[in-house]
Amino acid sequence: MLAACSGGGDSSPATTTTPAASTNSAPVIALANNDQAGQVGYDFSYDAAQNGGTFSDPDGDALTYSVSFSSPNGLADANGAISGISDAAGDITATITATDPGGLSVSDSFTIAVSVDQNAIAATFGASIDLENLENYANQAIPAYINKLNEGGNPISDAGATLGRVLFYDTSLSIDGTVSCASCHSQTLGFSDSGIVSTGVAGGQTGRHSMRLINTMFADETDFFWDERAPSHEAQESLPIQDHNEMGFSGQNGRPDLAVLITQMEATEYYEELFRFAFLDPAITEAKIQLALAQFTKSIHSFDSKYDTGRAQVNGNNANFPNFSAAENAGKDLFMQAPNNGGAGCNACHRAPEFDIAPNSGQNGVFAVAGSTTTFDLTNTRAPTLRDILGPGGAPNGPFMHDGSLATLRAVIDHYNSITEPVSEPPLAAFRASLDNRLNPGGNPQRLNLTETEKQQLEAFLATLTGSNVYTDPKWSDPF
């Protein structure tokens, strides 16, 4: 009998074996990161991957790294390497994640504690300045009806204004250590001066009365000084320091210049700490001095007057304010209305509710040089806001006008009631050509013919523009 058999000569059927699928294992933490420390304004650098030692992969896979931050505060990640300049104090939670090619990952978290270097600040200013608990300069409440906001590309920061406050009050910014910005701009006087002019180093005197520094940021005018020679708030700030008669770093007649002052400041420990904190860089420059001083002076706000209480209750400047007396409302009407409509026309130049000076204003009919009866000046075309022209007690915050020639508010009203032309000097033609056209209707100097009652009403209204907080708030006070 014949029988068939399998051709392979083997009695068992053929079989195929499939290799078991490999299993990808997730990375694991091999060496957790310790907490780290940094300081504001200083370079921070840390390899959170610890040169590959933080994680291991059971499969030997190459890992990629990424770091997330609870708040970066100036820090950044590059494949696990953290670097940058810390820009704020506080604890940062950093989480580094290792990921393998299959997408499996594991994370490790640690804290970066960022502090502020302020040893010299604490030694100099004590409790007046704490860089980890700053005064509120940047986010002060501003009434909704205030529309003119001129930051000039240099918005207020708490850190910058804090530095500016120190610069404002530091007498070491004068050549003999006797004069600061605050010497001519006293908080108790609405940041003005009680003198007709101000006294600087070595008995030098300013050429004009010191303007009040109230609400300087809330204005359309961008030029500064009475004659508008500074094209910005910032440009104005360092000029008194370099004025020969004010703070003296003029570089003239053997006196040091601003570069000498900056070298002096660089050797002052609290300035190294303050500039590093405010600008994340300890280098001191004129531009930084200007920025910081401008931020401080821009922060001097006054919006808690009787006027503000009333204005918040109505829809416009012309409505009667419910908290005003009859005389105050009548004075407000006189202020707001044009002379040809029964008013005094004040608002044409000093626009409510900011009461800033119109940027196209001419000279106002006060033409003398301070302290002189024989010389004249027709270039004074700027003025401060009318807010806080009086102090909380009703006394003037220093004399009025660029030459300090008007000692009382009534004298100011009398001046505008009847503009007086010069008899001989300055030349009448030059006076008339430069006089603001709103004070020269039809080519004739203004004659309002206000009654005694109307003058009293105007005075009563102008007194409502005075606040209270600006005179006592510690954030604007002398920190030394």
Portion in strands = 5-15%
- Rg over C-alpha atoms, rounded to the nearest angstrom: 34 Å
By DSSP (H or I, 4+ residues per run), the number of helices equals 13
The fold-level CATH name of the largest domain is Cytochrome Bc1 Complex, Chain D, domain 2
Name of the CATH superfamily of the largest domain: Cytochrome c-like domain
The N- to C-terminal Cα distance equals 124 Å
Please provide the ordered H/E string of secondary-structure elements. Answer: EEEEEEEEEHHHHHHHHHHEEHHH
Level-1 CATH class name of the largest domain: Mainly Alpha
CATH arch. level architecture of the largest domain: Orthogonal Bundle
- Chain-averaged pLDDT: 94
Largest sheet: 4 strands, mixed
Helix content: 10-25%
Low-confidence stretches: 1-15
Instruction: Identify the overall geometry.
Output: elongated
Q: How would you classify the helix and strand content by structural class?
A: alpha+beta
Q: Strands across the major sheet, in which order? A: 2-9-8-5
Count of individual domains: 3
Describe the protein in words.
The protein is an alpha+beta fold and 480 residues long. The chain has helices spanning 119-125, 158-169, 181-184, 233-237, 239-242, 258-266, 269-279, 286-298, 306-311, 326-336, 409-417, 428-434, 452-463, and strands at 28-29, 36-39, 43-47, 55-56, 64-69, 75-78, 81-85, 90-99, 105-115, 350-351, 356-357. Helices cover 23% and strands 11% of the residues. Strands 2-9-8-5 form a four-stranded mixed sheet, with no helix packed on it. A hairpin with a 2-residue loop joins strand 6 and strand 7. The longest helix is centred in the middle third of the chain and has 13 residues, at 286-298. Residues 1-15 have low confidence and may be disordered.
